[in-house]
């Protein structure tokens, strides 16, 4: 796999650089889960199952979409094409990224120059006469939104964890008559959710957490879709 060449974006150095919209197919081929933000849960629930995974070192939970039933498997990439109708923000921001300056509370844009989406021939120009194009401005806004959405999602996830609404679960799917378990994931505990006091439930509503919780719960049905895809590809 090609090494990334991540460089700060600069109007002189990248005066003629163009970007095609798309995702990092080479990298995504082997990713069975990617981080997602609460703001896209409703759209994700139509395509992929979601889960929370726990970082054993920090104890923090991360919301993810599942693209495969085991590590290294992405059932939505076929013949080097992304086949789903939607791609989460953590994927579509590529080949651009934001990095925080160590000294200041500012972010700088970086670009992966080795990306097949980057060239001087085809795609959307980033600069025109040294000025940022409308396209680059839009991409920048999306990068900033993603950071803000990630912070909101982190707070949402921490709240669920603190209220003990996340529970370790095993999802079982059937592929061609064989049962397969997906371990190491956490789901929203529906029983616990339903036994919250009126006050706690109202708090969830006030914080705007009910919609993402219900989208998350709905998404679990998409596990059957992964099983179908796997059976079809087997």
Give a short summary of the structure.
Helices cover 32% and strands 27% of the residues.
For this entry, give a set of tags.
234 residues; alpha+beta; three-stranded antiparallel β-sheet; 15 strands; globular; SapC; SapC family protein
Architecture overview:
The protein is of the alpha+beta class and 234 residues long. It contains eight helices and 15 strands. Strands 1-9-8 form a three-stranded antiparallel sheet, covered by helices on one side. It has a three-stranded antiparallel sheet with strand order 10-2-11, with no helix packed on it. The longest helix has 29 residues, at 134-162. The model has no long low-confidence stretch (mean pLDDT 92).
Write the layout of secondary structure elements.
Layout: E1 6-8, E2 18-19, H1 25-28, E3 33-35, H2 41-44, E4 50-54, E5 61-66, E6 77-78, E7 81-82, H3 89-92, E8 96-100, E9 107-112, E10 118-119, E11 124-125, E12 127-128, E13 131-132, H4 134-162, E14 166-175, E15 178-188, H5 190-194, H6 198-206, H7 210-219, H8 223-233
Antiparallel strand pairs: 1-9, 2-10, 2-11, 3-5, 4-5, 6-7, 8-9, 12-13, 14-15
């Amino acid at each position: 796999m090609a090494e990334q060449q991540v460089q700060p974006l600069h109007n002189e150095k990248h005066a003629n650089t163009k970007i095609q919209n798309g995702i990092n197919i080479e990298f995504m081929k082997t990713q069975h889960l990617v981080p997602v933000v609460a703001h896209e849960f409703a759209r994700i629930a139509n395509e992929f199952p979601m889960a929370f995974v726990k970082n054993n070192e920090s104890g923090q939970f991360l919301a993810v979409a599942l693209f495969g039933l085991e590590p290294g498997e992405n059932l939505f990439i076929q013949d080097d094409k992304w086949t789903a109708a939607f791609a989460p923000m953590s994927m579509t921001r590529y080949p651009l990224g934001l990095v925080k300056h160590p000294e200041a509370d500012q972010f700088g844009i970086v670009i992966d120059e080795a990306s097949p989406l980057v060239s001087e021939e085809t795609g959307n120009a980033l600069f025109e006469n040294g000025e940022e194009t409308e396209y680059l401005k839009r991409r920048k806004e999306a990068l900033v939104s993603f950071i803000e959405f990630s912070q909101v999602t982190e707070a949402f996830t921490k709240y669920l964890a603190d209220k003990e609404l996340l529970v370790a679960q095993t999802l079982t799917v059937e592929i061609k008559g064989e049962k397969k378990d997906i371990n190491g994931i956490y789901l929203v505990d529906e029983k616990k959710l339903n036994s919250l006091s009126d006050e706690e439930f109202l708090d969830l509503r006030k914080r705007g957490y009910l919609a993402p919780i219900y989208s998350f719960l709905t998404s679990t049905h998409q596990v059957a879709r992964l099983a179908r895809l796997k059976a079809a590809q087997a």
